[in-house]
Design goal:
It contains 13 helices and 14 strands. With 326 residues, the protein is an alpha/beta fold. The protein folds into 3 domains: 68 residues, no CATH class; 154 residues, Rossmann fold (3-Layer(aba) Sandwich); 89 residues, 2-Layer Sandwich (Hypothetical Protein, Haloacid Dehalogenase-like Hydrolase, Chain: A, domain 2). Helix 6 links the parallel strand 5 and strand 6. Helix 5 packs parallel to helix 13 and helix 8 crosses helix 10.
């Protein structure tokens, strides 16, 4: 006798009202167990009357007993900025601006990246269409890898917190990264802007300067070997601080234990949105990338190669998220 014959009649009817799908949707891990979701309560009431909602916990337990997990909700989508939403240090393309605006209509959105707030403004905020202005309260900005947090309140962007370095920490970080870069032959003579930058909560080394053209950045260290070698050398000099490989030519230094995973945990704490309900999209989810801590934290992730890859992904994800809210 199968399980189906052992269940009362209303159980079989309820099982038909559940959707069981392989976990290969864009917002699910490909290695996860099959998933199910309960139909909206109004549909349950139509099928079972007032009894419907009360049966939900029973049938969740039933499917979990078969190794089928509840489908994860996505109520917040977080993004890296450079090479995920926009080319490095460049404004978002109109296509991406439109898609990000559409996403804000449906869910909360976070941008977490190594740049300063001014960079977020130039690349993303200033390029959103006017129609997004009513949804800016759904946008969470986390500059300098989550060491700072901004929200749109009373028609202004306000800083909620900043994990700033002390003056001693800044001085030691600046000295160490400059000395090691020169020692390793990575201190360039011709650059586009300053190589070292004090961002308050983060010291950033940019081998070619902050304003270097994208093509030059991509050509400087395509394998990532230069950045990783510098990162390891500086980390050895600064055991009390966190040294990470940043963008295509950068190394970032923050307080110990503060990275994008820290930012995502703070985001969950401050918004009340569980990490399980978040999805992160980034181009550096490899083990040496500055997006990797989010993956290691257990947040669902989707890897992209560039902003166009992200746009193509969002064109599939947005209708799916919209349908899930109906």
């Amino acid at each position: 006798m199968g399980d189906r014959q052992m269940l009362p009649e209303h159980t079989v009817r309820m099982e038909k009202s559940l959707t069981v799908t392989p976990a290969t949707r864009p917002n699910e891990r490909s290695d996860a167990a099959p998933a199910f979701h309960i139909q909206p309560l109004r549909k349950l009431r139509r099928t079972f009357g007032r009894l419907g909602p009360r049966l939900v916990p029973f049938f969740e337990a039933f499917f979990l007993g078969k190794g089928i997990r509840p489908m994860t909700r996505t109520t917040l989508v977080a993004f890296d900025l450079d090479d995920t939403l926009a080319p490095s240090k460049s404004p978002m393309d109109p296509r991406m601006s439109r898609l990000l605006s559409e996403l804000l209509d449906i869910v909360e959105v976070c941008i977490i990246s190594g740049g300063q707030f001014s960079q977020f403004k130039m690349q993303a905020i200033d390029n959103l269409p006017d129609s997004s202005s009513s949804h800016l309260d759904r946008l969470h900005l986390m500059p300098t890898c989550g060491t700072q947090y901004y929200r749109f309140e009373d028609s202004l962007w306000k800083q909620i917190y900043a994990e700033n370095l002390t003056e001693d920490e800044k001085a030691r970080a600046l000295a160490a990264v400059e000395a090691r870069a020169k020692e390793l032959g990575l201190w360039e003579d011709e650059t586009w802007g300053p190589i070292l930058e004090d961002r308050g909560s983060q010291i950033t080394f940019s081998a070619l300067g902050q304003a270097a053209p994208v093509a030059a950045k991509q050509a400087w260290d395509p394998s990532g070997e230069k950045k990783n070698t510098l990162r390891e050398a500086v980390q050895a000099d600064l055991p009390d601080l966190e040294v990470r490989s940043g963008g295509s030519t950068s190394v970032d230094i923050t307080r110990q234990g503060i990275d994008k995973a820290y930012g995502m945990k703070k985001l969950a704490e401050l918004t009340g949105i569980p990490l399980d309900d978040m999805l992160f999209v980034g181009d550096r989810l490899d083990e040496n990338g500055n997006d990797y801590p989010v993956k290691a934290l257990g947040v669902r992730t989707h890897a992209v190669d560039d902003w166009e890859d992200t746009a193509a992904y969002l064109e599939k994800l947005i209708p799916e998220l919209r349908n899930a809210t109906l």
